[in-house]
Description:
The chain is mainly α. The chain has helices spanning 7-54, 61-81, 84-92, 98-116, 137-160, 167-183, 190-223, 228-255, 264-290, 297-302, 305-340, 351-378, 385-404, 411-441, 449-460, 464-476, 485-499, 502-530, and strands at 120-122, 346-348. It is elongated and about 80 Å long.
Amino acid sequence: MRPNFTYVDMGLYIMALKNAEKIDQAITQQRNEFVRLGLGFVFLAGIMLFVFLSFKGLQGGLVLSVAAVIGGYMAMNIGANDVANNVGPAVGSKAMTLMWAIIIAAVFEGAGALLAGGEVVSTIKKGIIDPSNITDPNTFIWLMVSALLAGAVWLNFATLIGAPVSTTHSIVGGVLGAGIAAGGFGIANWDKMGTIAASWVISPVLGGVIAASFQLFIKKKIIYRTDMLAAARRFVPVLIAFMVWAFSTYLALKGLKKIWKIDFQTAALFGLGCAVVFYVIVTPIIGRASKKLKNSREGVNSLFTIPLIFAAALLSFAHGANDVANAVGPLAAISDSITNAGISTKAAIPLWVMMIGALGIGLGLMLYGPKLIRTVGTEITELDKSRAFCVAMAAAITVIVASQFGLPVSSTHIAVGGIFGIGFLREYLKTSYASQLHKMLEQHEGEEKVRLQKFLENFQGASIEEMEKMLKVAKKQKAELGFKKSERKRLKKMYSEKLVKRSAFKKIIAAWIITVPASASLAGGLFLMLNGLPLG
């Protein structure tokens, strides 16, 4: 006898399978989350045990152990949030896989922190408060603990919502808020805070303009040419040489400052020498590689793969050398105050403190970095290898320019600003072509609406180069097409939404604006709760 198995039963069976699959995915995701939490807990517990045993019997040893755990927590959050800016574009453009990006970033971040991180750090980050107004060492210690914890918590929250924010601004806000709670509003250096606030605009605008300028150069000199490969053989070695100059100068000034202290002119000449050497080396390599490629945008983009991987590694090294102080600077200050029973404006960074920063950044990147890497690489605008290359160039050049003019800039704001700059340039170029089409077609309406609709559907999915060809066809056939003004506005809005995701733009800008106030408020509240507790 045949079973009475109806289409309704089949539908219910399929729904049950889908629900079972969703449940299985949820269980797997929950299991992975427990694994990540477990590994993070083991790391922080290991820090607590190591510091407690190392400083057993020291007055304030327990507080130092807790501060070390908070420093490790801060370092993990830097790895989860800030490091994504260095490798996200390379992942988004498919120059490297997510796994390799994590490995490369973790290795070079740690190497930068340990090999080129500063031996001495300013205990009052960026000079935003006056330490002379704080005379009690205990007050100073709780101020730093509050600032460090507040910055870490804010970074954790930003990572959860998928917003790349500045770790420097997070710790600056923490020190400001705890400082005001400890010594009143007069303790703050408001002029310095004004320059930091100005960097919210300076950093992304500089990064965006520089990235867009390089992208426009690549389009006009290579992509828009009939023989793209011939143009690439001429200009790609120049771009790579310029990248070598920028990164060599950048690393000499920032990343290697502990090993080799030089002025800008010497660093620039050193970078120029490296650039000339690499230009001679890569020119024949690009020439040979281009002969095996198709004369297309994809073929040209493949030439940027290796330079982009090197750029991600070098950015990670420089970031580790510079931004590890955001995690270990306050911890070094706490350690110095407890061991010396006083307050100092400069503090040496012990090796164990630097190790906490380096290992924490690497672990945070591996456990929680993928979310922000995807946000930076894919969720703002579509990136190919040439666009990602331009973002990396903007990051290095902007820091060099800003440092020479004494402008405080954020590496996070620069990188994300560069991605926004690329996206808005694409919008401008595409809508410029769209506007030309609209002007030619807006006077026609009525009987040709079906043909117009089909044309616009094709136009919507076209690349910039294809749109230009379609414009020429439309010019010849404009008498057969019609277009309404309301449809034109709707179409232009659709292009903007497609090329730069406005939801990501609004979320990231809002997170940037509230980073300092949020971490400051949190730090102030923490200080009021903690101050007065015995150090033990």
